[in-house]
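Dear support,

I submitted the protein below through the web form. The confirmation email said the job was done, but the results page showed an empty box. After a refresh the structure appeared. I'm attaching both so you can tell me whether what I see now is the final result or a partial one.
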Amino acid sequence: MTHATEQPEPRRHVLIVEDEPRLGQVLGQAMVELGYTATVVRTGEEALRRMGESPHSIMILDLNLPGVGGLDVLEKVRATQGDVAAIILTGFGDLESAKRAIHLNVVEFLTKPAHLGDLEIALNRAEQRLRERDIERLRQRISEGMEASTSPAGGGDSGGPNDATLKLEELEKRAILASLERHEGNREKVAKELGISVRTLYYRLSQYDPRK
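What the results page shows now:
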């Protein structure tokens, strides 16, 4: 089996929407220290433009922005990029904003100034949510493929072991390793074929030895 030389795990991109220049700079530097790349913008309008040009999987949003507010930005992004994981920052909280944040499936609602430790915990939760989304998406595709292969139109038994009796975890592993073989270890091509992020692929590969 052919595999590419081990490469460092890719950094995930974070879009920071903060109208206070100093705080935006601090947050951007914190992202670098935590292993991310960051783009910092100061308005909701610019955030929407950036997300349209180059979608980010994680957003850190100030609740109170000039013009389009943080939750309004998130609502608009959700309409076109529903999978984004959002962390809300606010200088003060209120019940209605909290309710709306919950409705928009926000990862965390942090009060400024947020401690680096709290921000790191929120980012870890965002990462977990994105991985779970990717894994669920992959397993759904596998399940649909199993149903197609066992239907009368699918031709029935292929002569090998009955994959329908195997756990989805094992089928997921097989799908990833088979795709790695097809693409000679090119992780970007594998992630694209499987419909998951490259970062999720690295996470999954870290859980078992792809050489076996």
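Response: this is the final, complete result; the empty box was a page-load delay. The two ends are 9 Å apart (CA to CA).
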